[in-house]
Amino acid sequence: MEILRDPLPSADLPRGGVVTIGNFDGVHRGHQLLVRGAVEHARALEIPAVALTFKPHPEMVLRPEVGLKLLTNASQRAQLLALCGLDALVEIGFDRRLAATSAEVFTREFLHLRLLPREVWLGADFRFGADRLGDVELLATLGRELGFGVVGVDPVSEGGDVISSTRIRRTVAHGHVEAAWLLLGRPYFVDGDVYTGERMGRKLGFPTINIGVGDGLLPAHGVYATAVQIPSFGRVFACVTNIGVRPTVYENYRVTVESHVLDFTADLYEEPVRLFFLRRLREERIFPSSMALVAQIHRDVEQTKLYFLQHGLPLRGLVLR
Q1: If we measure between CA atoms, which residue out of 148, 177, 254 comes closest to residue 210?
Q2: Could you list the residue range(s) of the whole structural domain that residue 76 is in?
Q3: Same-domain status, 111 and 256
Q4: What pLDDT score does 147 carry?
Q5: What pLDDT is attached to residue 216?
Q6: Is the same domain home to 130 and 24?
Q7: Which residue out of 59, 119, 158, 258 is catalytically annotated?
Q8: Is 258 annotated as catalytic?
């Protein structure tokens, strides 16, 4: 998949294709249905399948005080969209000037002039342009004049409610990672680099890797059955992960993400890894002693092994995407 980020006016963009528009945070099941439908139709017409999206997320520009935490960064989003079979991803820089551009002007001056789509696909509830006045109906009206068709795809529901990025962010933030898996169609994951910690886990008999995850959305503090993808090994390993401030050992300490990789001893410092969240085991809590903490970690490890066994998953060589 070709990626064109904030293309200049002179950039050669893929023209005459099926274009799908959205923010696509998380690339959840609803996004996948939309994008894969557009890709399948483009293949039938033998024309390019193109996704048009924005960076940063519009809410980060329009409502910065909210402090929005995204499910995926730009690189992760592109990777997940590529799995849907797209030929190209066009990523437009979003700022207040673009936010003030009317839906009609955006459609005429960017969508039509630069991409010359044959069809445009978008979620039936997607809104764009100044004051969010652009929708499927407006786009269809302009499309009849400009020469492209418009397809509005209904949202996907789960449990009686529409699947949305907002819903999934809330689900992840509460630590309900199994529910997030169902909504995303894949385990929720974060990426980060392994860094040197205080080696407290090693002192307790459970060496951990400390993962720096940047500003991404983390599940609620607690202990999780997880799996970590280690590129240098080309494999995914079962692990137990703690997110929190380690209150038994420290007071008022920063939030850390620490994973004990089962039956693993290699040095991974400075290595990039991907951490998949499979099940929440328990909340983070204070233990009366280090011995009590160690006993609980033993139980966490056994619960994780049992989870993998019950689901027929290997502790090494797991395939997750």
Answers
A1: 254
A2: 2-157
A3: no
A4: 97
A5: 85
A6: yes
A7: 258
A8: yes
